Protein backbone atom coordinates (compact mmCIF):
# COMPACT_ATOMS: atom_id res chain seq x y z
CA UNK A 1 0.00 0.00 0.00
CA UNK A 2 1.23 3.44 -0.87
CA UNK A 3 0.61 6.66 1.06
CA UNK A 4 1.89 10.22 1.37
CA UNK A 5 1.38 11.23 5.02
CA UNK A 6 2.82 14.18 6.91
CA UNK A 7 3.84 11.96 9.84
CA UNK A 8 4.67 8.32 10.54
CA UNK A 9 1.50 6.23 10.11
CA UNK A 10 0.51 3.19 12.13
CA UNK A 11 -0.88 0.04 10.56
CA UNK A 12 -4.16 0.77 12.32
CA UNK A 13 -4.33 4.27 10.81
CA UNK A 14 -3.68 2.88 7.33
CA UNK A 15 -6.57 0.43 7.62
CA UNK A 16 -8.83 3.10 9.15
CA UNK A 17 -8.40 5.15 5.96
CA UNK A 18 -9.11 2.13 3.76
CA UNK A 19 -12.27 1.30 5.70
CA UNK A 20 -13.46 4.90 6.02
CA UNK A 21 -16.00 6.89 4.06
CA UNK A 22 -13.45 9.59 3.27
CA UNK A 23 -14.00 11.21 -0.12
CA UNK A 24 -11.53 10.36 -2.84
CA UNK A 25 -9.15 13.18 -3.71
CA UNK A 26 -6.62 13.98 -6.43
CA UNK A 27 -3.30 12.20 -6.05
CA UNK A 28 -0.44 14.17 -4.58
CA UNK A 29 2.37 15.00 -7.01
CA UNK A 30 4.60 12.43 -5.29
CA UNK A 31 1.94 9.71 -5.56
CA UNK A 32 1.30 10.50 -9.24
CA UNK A 33 5.04 10.39 -9.98
CA UNK A 34 5.44 6.97 -8.36
CA UNK A 35 2.34 5.53 -10.02
CA UNK A 36 3.54 6.82 -13.39
CA UNK A 37 6.98 5.29 -12.83
CA UNK A 38 5.49 1.93 -11.82
CA UNK A 39 3.13 1.98 -14.81
CA UNK A 40 6.07 2.61 -17.14
CA UNK A 41 8.35 0.08 -15.50
CA UNK A 42 5.73 -2.69 -15.35
CA UNK A 43 3.11 -1.93 -18.02
CA UNK A 44 -0.06 -3.96 -18.42
CA UNK A 45 -0.19 -3.40 -22.19
CA UNK A 46 2.32 -3.09 -25.01
CA UNK A 47 2.46 -0.15 -27.41
CA UNK A 48 -0.27 -1.73 -29.56
CA UNK A 49 -2.64 -2.13 -26.61
CA UNK A 50 -2.13 -5.89 -26.24
CA UNK A 51 -1.97 -7.50 -22.81
CA UNK A 52 1.52 -8.35 -21.61
CA UNK A 53 2.74 -10.53 -18.75
CA UNK A 54 2.10 -7.88 -16.12
CA UNK A 55 2.70 -8.23 -12.38
CA UNK A 56 -0.43 -6.17 -11.61
CA UNK A 57 -3.55 -7.98 -10.43
CA UNK A 58 -5.67 -4.93 -11.25
CA UNK A 59 -5.33 -2.20 -13.86
CA UNK A 60 -5.29 0.75 -14.04
CA UNK A 61 -3.31 1.17 -10.84
CA UNK A 62 -5.29 4.27 -9.87
CA UNK A 63 -7.97 6.60 -11.09
CA UNK A 64 -7.84 10.38 -11.21
CA UNK A 65 -8.96 10.49 -7.58
CA UNK A 66 -8.28 7.97 -4.82
CA UNK A 67 -8.31 7.53 -1.08
CA UNK A 68 -5.09 8.72 0.60
CA UNK A 69 -3.98 5.05 0.72
CA UNK A 70 -3.50 3.25 -2.60
CA UNK A 71 -3.51 -0.53 -2.71
CA UNK A 72 -0.97 -1.88 -5.19
CA UNK A 73 -2.47 -5.24 -6.16
CA UNK A 74 0.35 -7.48 -7.34
CA UNK A 75 0.10 -11.02 -8.68
CA UNK A 76 1.49 -13.24 -5.92
CA UNK A 77 4.18 -14.80 -8.17
CA UNK A 78 5.70 -11.34 -8.76
CA UNK A 79 5.37 -9.85 -5.28
CA UNK A 80 8.70 -10.95 -3.77
CA UNK A 81 10.69 -9.92 -6.85
CA UNK A 82 9.07 -6.47 -6.97
CA UNK A 83 9.23 -5.55 -3.29
CA UNK A 84 12.78 -4.20 -3.09
CA UNK A 85 12.26 -2.12 -6.23
CA UNK A 86 8.95 -0.75 -4.95
CA UNK A 87 10.62 0.22 -1.67
CA UNK A 88 13.40 2.02 -3.57
CA UNK A 89 10.92 3.86 -5.81
CA UNK A 90 8.75 4.87 -2.85
CA UNK A 91 11.75 6.19 -0.92
CA UNK A 92 12.98 8.12 -3.95
CA UNK A 93 9.54 9.75 -4.27
CA UNK A 94 9.40 10.40 -0.49
CA UNK A 95 6.42 8.07 0.05
CA UNK A 96 5.49 5.44 2.61
CA UNK A 97 5.13 1.85 1.39
CA UNK A 98 3.29 -0.58 3.65
CA UNK A 99 3.73 -4.31 2.96
CA UNK A 100 0.67 -6.02 4.47
CA UNK A 101 2.17 -9.49 3.96
CA UNK A 102 5.09 -8.75 6.30
CA UNK A 103 3.39 -6.01 8.32
CA UNK A 104 6.33 -3.69 7.59
CA UNK A 105 5.97 0.05 7.04
CA UNK A 106 8.83 1.34 4.87
CA UNK A 107 9.43 5.03 5.61
CA UNK A 108 11.04 7.62 3.38
CA UNK A 109 13.99 9.63 4.72
CA UNK A 110 11.78 12.66 5.49
CA UNK A 111 9.88 10.63 8.13
CA UNK A 112 12.81 8.90 9.81
Describe it.
With 112 residues, this protein is α+β, with helices and mostly antiparallel strands. The chain has one domain. The chain has helices spanning 11-19, 29-41, 76-92; strands at 2-3, 25-26, 65-66, 69-70, 96-99, 104-106. The longest helix has 17 residues, at 76-92. It is globular. The chain starts with a strand and ends in a 6-residue tail after the last strand. The model has no long low-confidence stretch (mean pLDDT 94).
> How many extended strands?
6
Number of helices: 3
Instruction: Classify the beta-strand content into a percent band.
Output: 5-15%
Question: Separation of termini?
Answer: 18 Å
Shape descriptor: globular
Largest sheet: 4 strands, antiparallel
The secondary-structure class comes to alpha+beta
Low-pLDDT parts are: none
* Approximate helicity band: 25-40%
Secondary-structure element series: EHEHEEHEE
Q: How many individual domains? A: 1
Gyration radius over CA: 14 Å
Strand order of the largest sheet: 4-1-5-6
- What do the pLDDT scores average to? 94
Question: What's the SSE blueprint?
Answer:
Layout: E1 2-3, H1 11-19, E2 25-26, H2 29-41, E3 65-66, E4 69-70, H3 76-92, E5 96-99, E6 104-106
Antiparallel strand pairs: 1-4, 1-5, 2-3, 5-6
Question: What's this, in brief?
Answer:
The protein has 112 residues and is an alpha+beta fold.
Amino acid sequence: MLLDPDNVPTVEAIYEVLESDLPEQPLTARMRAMIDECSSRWPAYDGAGNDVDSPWASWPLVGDEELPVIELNIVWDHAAAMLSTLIEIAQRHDLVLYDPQSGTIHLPPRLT
